[in-house]
Amino acid sequence: MAAGRDAVRLDEQELAQFLADQMKVQVATIGADGAPHLTTLFYVLDDAGRITFWTYGASQKIANLRRDPRVSVLVEDGTDYFELRGVSITGTARLVEEYDAIRAIGARVMARMARGAELGELGDQVLDKQATKRVGVVIEPEHVASWDHRKMSALPGQK
Question: Is residue 118 part of a domain?
Fold first, then answer.
């Protein structure tokens, strides 16, 4: 089975392109009782290619990360089995709490969500206000797993 996993793994360029093309990440943190807490957020990639997002400072995920910075994230795409693609990352969340850095993350997330539409002055006002309530999060990867089931059709004996 290892050969099968290797055959569908994304190479570095494919992985970077996949993460650049997607917009939403599922984020799992560890609750006080040890149970996973799962949410979905919009994200951007920082200059080092790490998943980065902002969220409310009073959110459960931030409370969890302050207590235990371990995190698992999932970015996925596809509907049918032979279309499934994804990247799963386990690592540590680094919190960003300086206003200008939070605002910069938020500006990039908002621009990405707007898909190129101009945010204008109103967008800047929203961004200024939101940045006072939010925390930035950078995922520091320790383990990355990826798959692209579209590659399976090229394997002997497959579809």
Answer: yes
